[in-house]
Design a protein that fits this description.
Helix content is 14%, strand content 32%. By secondary structure, the protein is α+β, with helices and mostly antiparallel strands. The protein has a five-stranded mixed β-barrel with strand order 3-4-5-7-6.
């Protein structure tokens, strides 16, 4: 080492200095020994010439120059593991700092802080509006310093607060206050500890909008707890499932057909919807939703909607429940015989075409059938040749079966039979003049008479 370095007055030992020096030395050796592994022999020469002792002395001199003017508080903070600003003054600075995002890796956002080598990291969950792009300037607070990683631990909500991680453990029921939202779920606070509630663990069903949960206090179960990584994950769904199982057992014990409940639609499929009536899910089939024809269940109900249902069938062995909704409203078939008397003429819209006829919607939930034999007086091979889907027709009521909910209609009865065409009159034949009658000429003389030659009559025996 040079004489100038030896003449410098002794300075208080900096516990962080060795760390920086070791890091600096490792980097220096990596730069100068890129060609291979150095020997431990002090006589070994390096690319710059000279022996190892001369190289170490030169490297130490360069290191002293590089660190001149820096104090331990500038880079690594004081004894309380917090940064100190003001070279050598030891004054603690807990105010906000502005830095720039220089890297994003997974859930970690790395920030360049003011200073030559000051860098920090904070969790992406602290950006509910979305992770900022590289180069964005953000305002942060220094929480602590991670000496193993050489990075400041940052946050956006103020100076660090000492928390007791022993107050939480896996499986414990805690009260979590929702402080914000992000793409993956909710940011929560438990006993002063920041945590995370995944969106899949909020409810028993899928949650689309997270905003209504902000500011609420939710009972949750601790799912993950790691004080070293400052990682706390809670689940509300686990607690809800436990309560649901208890409610389900109580409900199955008292369920009876005909009971009416107000439930919540949990899941919707094409064939129906699953409705939660208080711990038990029942199927509301698409055919039991309304007296009107429903093509898809989503046309009648939506997830989260409250509906009033009646218990139709119970299968206790397989734990299955069939529900109905149309049974709770008045049926339009109750007075159908009065409104559609046999022999009356009604108007409707063709709603369905089949091989055997056409269905006509007379009013919502009321359909009648025109059999193929009642479509036309003539022989019909295809129903579509006579009526089209959606067309309006005038028909005659042939029959009404209230119990079977069937109405027979006729389109043929509304069609007048064609009148027979009159046969064309035969034209008179032209008259031909009659030929004169020629007198008959008798070649033999006539017998009898008054002529000469004998009497007019001869008596027998004469």
């Amino acid at each position: 080492m040079s004489d100038e370095a030896n003449d410098k007055p002794d300075t208080p030992a900096d516990p962080n200095k060795d760390v920086r020096l070791d890091r600096f030395l490792r980097k220096g050796r990596q730069r100068t020994n890129s060609g291979g592994v150095p020997s431990l022999d002090s006589e070994t020469t390096y690319a710059g010439g000279g022996d190892a002792a001369d190289y170490d002395a030169e490297l130490e001199r360069q290191m002293e120059e590089a660190l001149a003017g820096f104090d331990g508080g500038d880079l690594l903070g004081g004894e309380d593991d917090r940064p100190q600003r003001g070279k050598g003054k030891g004054k603690q600075d807990t105010g906000p700092k502005k830095g720039r995002v220089f890297r994003v890796h997974g859930q970690d956002v790395f920030i360049d802080l003011p200073g030559s080598r000051n860098q920090g990291v904070l969790n992406a969950m602290q950006f509910p509006e979305g992770v900022p792009p590289i180069g964005t300037e953000v305002e942060v607070f220094v929480e602590s310093f991670d000496s193993s990683a050489g990075l400041y631990i940052l946050n956006r909500k103020g100076a660090a607060i000492d928390v007791d991680w022993s107050s939480v453990r896996i499986g414990m029921t805690v009260e979590a206050k929702v402080t914000g939202t992000n793409k993956g779920g909710l940011s929560v606070e438990v006993n002063g500890i920041r945590g995370f509630l995944p969106i899949s663990q909020i409810e028993l069903f899928r949650v689309e909008n997270l905003d209504p949960y902000v500011g609420k206090k939710l009972l949750c179960i601790v799912a993950e707890c790691d004080p070293e990584d400052r990682n706390l994950v809670v689940s509300r769904r686990g607690l809800l499932e436990k309560d649901r199982e208890e409610q389900a057992e109580k409900l199955w014990a008292k369920l009876e057909e005909g009971q009416v409940y107000e439930g919540i639609v949990r899941n919707v499929r094409d064939f129906g919807a699953f409705v939660d009536i208080g711990g038990v899910d029942g199927l509301l089939h698409v055919g039991e939703m309304s007296w009107s024809r429903v093509e898809k269940a989503e046309d009648a109900v939506k997830p989260g909607q409250k509906v009033k249902v009646v218990v139709l069938r119970i299968d206790r062995e397989r734990r299955k429940l069939s529900l109905g909704a149309k049974q709770l409203i008045e049926s339009p078939w109750d007075d159908v015989e009065t409104r559609y008397a046999v022999g009356t003429t009604v108007t409707g819209k063709v709603s369905r075409l089949t091989d055997f006829g056409a269905f006509v919607e007379l009013e919502p939930a009321i359909e009648g059938l025109i059999h193929i034999s009642e479509l036309s007086p003539n022989r019909v091979r295809r129903v579509a040749d006579v009526v089209q889907l959606g067309s309006t027709v005038e028909v005659k009521v042939l029959s009404v079966d209230k119990a079977a909910r069937r109405i027979g209609l006729s389109l043929k009865a509304m069609t007048k039979p064609p009148e027979p065409e009159p046969e064309p009159e035969a034209e008179p034949e032209p008259e031909t003049p009659a030929e004169p009658v020629k007198p008959r000429v008798h070649k033999t003389p006539l017998r009898g008479g008054t002529g000469a030659g004998g009497p007019l009559f001869k008596m027998p025996g004469e």
